[in-house]
Design brief:
Jelly Rolls, globular, 11 strands, 274 residues, disordered N terminus, alpha+beta
Length: 274
């Protein structure tokens, strides 16, 4: 069973080189066959500590933004009590210059360009806090079949701010499924667990400073956070420049339009973006 990240070797999708500027040919081969790759030690402990302090600032100085009617915010149920817990700022760059710096960091951009073989463009970014007790996500692929024009080159870089473990609900990816959609029904986004072979699972157990990169069609899920601490992660997604150009502004306008009716139904009040 592929349930652990392998130690670095010539056939491993893992780099141990700090400040790597691009993926090696072996890593690219593994990314293309598996749909994900892990790069160890891309960022220094000092850089991640700065990002960690920034998340603490956001929770205090931007506390007035945290509201279920604010389309920037989303909530997740507690896996035992059902209590609604604040989960994510999406987007986050416009309220956090430090997060914005990470999303455009040359090391990430170089890695993405080695995947695309052309310039990469920021598509979206979200800062997930995953409070203790918060539910995870059911199995899904990130590229929605129902969303016409959504870039097929959508790739996400997962930047852990805290250690990601099975206990705190790290992301689980399933290798080799990223060539196409696993459902041909545009109404289906969350997939049944039996859609994938459990033998293809890898838990993305990462240390702060590592990153994981996975294709938008790589199926993934996560379990509840059963630890006593937050599991903060910055998720940054890109598209190839030839695949629709700069779409971030248009994406968020469309995304918020899609969310509005659902959030207003859930909260019983008018939504806003702040």
């Amino acid at each position: 069973m592929v349930d652990m990240i392998a130690e670095a070797d010539a056939s491993s999708p893992v780099s141990q080189t700090a400040g790597v500027s691009e993926l090696s040919p072996q890593q690219l081969d593994r990314y293309r066959s598996d749909g994900f790759v892990v790069v160890r030690n891309l960022f220094s402990a000092t850089e991640i500590q700065g990002l960690r302090q920034e998340t603490e600032r956001l929770l205090t100085e931007c506390a007035d933004l945290i509201n279920p009617r604010n389309l920037r915010c989303r909530y997740m149920a507690h896996h035992e009590t059902g209590e609604s817990l604040f989960e994510v700022f999406d987007p986050v760059n416009d309220i956090s210059p430090i997060c914005e710096q990470f999303t455009h960091d040359p090391r990430i951009m170089n890695v993405m360009e080695s995947i695309y073989e052309e310039p990469a463009l920021l598509f979206k970014e979200k800062l997930i806090f995953k409070l203790p007790g918060a539910m995870g996500y059911n199995l899904h692929q990130d590229i929605p079949l129902y969303w016409e024009g959504f870039p097929r080159t959508f790739v996400t870089v997962l930047i852990p701010i805290d250690e990601t473990t099975r206990e705190n609900g790290c992301t689980e990816v399933f290798s080799g499924y990223h060539a196409d959609f696993l459902s041909n029904n545009p109404e289906v986004y969350m997939l049944p667990d039996e859609t994938v072979d459990p033998a293809r699972r890898t838990w993305l157990e990462l240390q702060p400073g590592d990153v994981a990169i996975f294709h938008g069609l790589t199926p993934h899920r996560s379990s509840p956070n059963r630890s006593h601490a937050m599991r903060r992660t910055l998720y940054v997604s890109y598209n190839a420049s030839s695949d629709g150009g700069d779409q971030r502004t248009a994406h968020y306008a469309k995304f918020q339009d899609k969310m509005r009716a659902r959030v207003e139904s859930q909260t019983g009040g008018k939504t806003y973006f702040q």
